[in-house]
Structure formats: structure tokens, C-alpha cells
Amino acid sequence: MDISDFDRSRIYLSWEVDGKFHSDGREVALLEYIYNRPDIDQLRGNPQRVLQAIDDFARSVTGLINIGETKGAVVTKLIANHKPDTILELGGYVGYSAIMFGDALRRAGGKQYHSVEKSPLFAAVAASLVDLAGLRDVVSITVGTGAEGIQRLYHSGVLKSQLAMAFFDHHKPSYTPDLKRCERLGLVGPGTVLVADNMILPGNPPYAEWVRASVAEKRELDRDSEEKGNPNLQYRSRSIKSWEPSGHEDALEITECVGVEA
Ligand SMILES: C[S@@+](CC[C@H](N)C(=O)[O-])C[C@H]1O[C@@H](n2cnc3c(N)ncnc32)[C@H](O)[C@@H]1O
């Protein structure tokens, strides 16, 4: 993908305002902006219009740390092709990706999109926007860190078998331990597709190393690691270059579990 593929007329305003990237009141301002729009009734039950309204805010008021349209379209296409029944998301922010991918999951015949978000405030904003978009039956939001969310969803029986897809978009150093936790619990197996955001901006060398390694290499890595995964899972991984809504280059890592070595 080339920068010419990025439509610069659709660029978000800067994420950074006075040294802050979020949590300066912009998330509540987003909610007020959306519910005060004259076209609010046309947004009800319409995920695409809710996404457009979030994009409008990020283009005219303050930038937001959403995945955005360009990278989002890569994942939406993947969902249409793989038709997952369940997706686990770590890092929900104000619900942009949960609305975009929850809608794609529903259109592909899937059932549940579980979004885990550490901030109770962001999770509350996301819950309101998911409800507005008419996706309450599909998207559930769990407040907690990735590790807490995985444990709670697993022990309550909500996640009881292999995940069809997982989307990592939270605390960058937690991608690898949270993936390994999923592996240990048997939530990753042949057919599971893992999608990791921000592989260039800011990058995530430990995660890239783990998902691109052979079984033999992972056995070595796991031996020296406090956080054990399942090194016997065979992964096929590729990097897809794309663009942040701010116009910065980024990449998604898309990893498919293709088997288990005895
Ligand atoms: C880049 S944003 C997610 C954007 C969202 N996926 C989207 O595209 O609309 C990262 C989010 O991860 C959350 N977060 C940070 N550390 C976390 C953790 N350990 N577990 C879960 N969420 C976390 C932050 O509060 C923030 O909302």
C-alpha cells in the first residue's frame, strides 16, 4: 500500500493536544457532540453513520486514537472472508473498532464480539455508542486489563472454546503475555486468526518475534520466559502496511494458526 492510497482529505486532527493523546475530556466531549447532532435520529441503529459521526468529531474537534477507516477496512475484509463466530478485542477505547468489526461480524453471520477495555470511562462511552449503533446484542464490553478480561470471560464460561479471531489493540507490552495466556487456556488453535495493530507505530518486536517464530524457536523462547505460552502452535504470519487516520504509516500483523506440532 502506498501513501497515495490514503485519502488526505479524510485525515484526523492531531491526537496530541498539550502533550496528551487521550483522557483530557475529549471522550466525553465526543459523546456530547454525537448526541447533540441534528441528525441523531438517523444514527440510531446505523453502525456506519455512528462511525462517520466519530470520524467527523476527530476531523473537526480533536483527534482520536481509533483504528480509523483505512486500517479498519483491512480487518473488515478479513472478517468477511473468515466469517468468525466470535471475536475477542483487547483495547476498546470509545468503541470505534467494536462498532466497525461488530457490524462486520454480524453481517458475516457471527454472534459475539467481546471487547475488553481497561478504562471504565472509555468503556462507558463505548457502551453508549454501541447501543446507539444498535449492536448491543452483538458487542459486549468488559472493564479490565486484557489479562483480567481474558480470565473473567474464560472462568465465567463466556469464552469456553477456541477463538475464531482476536484483535490486539491495547497496551503494547501486554500483547505477547496476553496472547500466551489465550494459548495456555486453549483459546488459540488451528483456524484462529490473530490481528495486532500498531506494529510500526510504535512497533512491537516481542510480539512480532513470537508470532513469526517456528515451533522450535518458540520452544527456546518459552524456556527462558516467565510467561509460558503454547509453543507447539504453528503460526503463519504476515505484515500488512497501512495508514493511521492521522496519515502516519503503520502495519497490522495478521497471524493464522495453521496447526499444532506434537
Ligand atoms: C489504541 S486504543 C484502542 C482503539 C480501539 N481498538 C479502536 O480502534 O477504536 C487503546 C486502548 O487500550 C486501552 N488499554 C490500555 N492498557 C490496557 C490493558 N492492559 N488492557 C486493556 N485495555 C488497555 C486504553 O485505555 C485504550 O482505550
UniProtKB/TrEMBL annotation:
<dbReference type="GO" id="GO:0008171">
    <property type="term" value="F:O-methyltransferase activity"/>
</dbReference>
<dbReference type="GO" id="GO:0032259">
    <property type="term" value="P:methylation"/>
</dbReference>
<comment type="similarity">
    <text>Belongs to the class I-like SAM-binding methyltransferase superfamily. Cation-dependent O-methyltransferase family.</text>
</comment>
<keyword id="KW-0489">Methyltransferase</keyword>
<dbReference type="InterPro" id="IPR029063">
    <property type="entry name" value="SAM-dependent_MTases_sf"/>
</dbReference>
<dbReference type="GO" id="GO:0006584">
    <property type="term" value="P:catecholamine metabolic process"/>
</dbReference>
<keyword id="KW-0949">S-adenosyl-L-methionine</keyword>
<dbReference type="Pfam" id="PF01596">
    <property type="entry name" value="Methyltransf_3"/>
</dbReference>
<keyword id="KW-0808">Transferase</keyword>
<dbReference type="InterPro" id="IPR002935">
    <property type="entry name" value="SAM_O-MeTrfase"/>
</dbReference>
<keyword id="KW-0128">Catecholamine metabolism</keyword>
<protein>
    <recommendedName>
        <fullName>catechol O-methyltransferase</fullName>
        <ecNumber>2.1.1.6</ecNumber>
    </recommendedName>
</protein>
